[in-house]
Amino acid sequence: MLALAEKRPAGIEVVREYLRRMAGRSVRPMTLEDVGAVVQVHRTAIPGFFLTSLGPKLLALYYAAVVRSELGINLVFVRQGQVRGFAVGTLDPRRFYRQLFKRRCLAFGWYSLGALARRPRILQRMTRAVLDRLGAPHGPEAARLASLAVAPEEQGRGFGLALMVAWIERARELGARRVALEVMKHDQNLIRAYEQLGFRPVRETRKPLAEPMVELRSDSVGEASTT
Question: Which helix (H) or strand (E) holds 31?
Answer without folding.
Answer: none
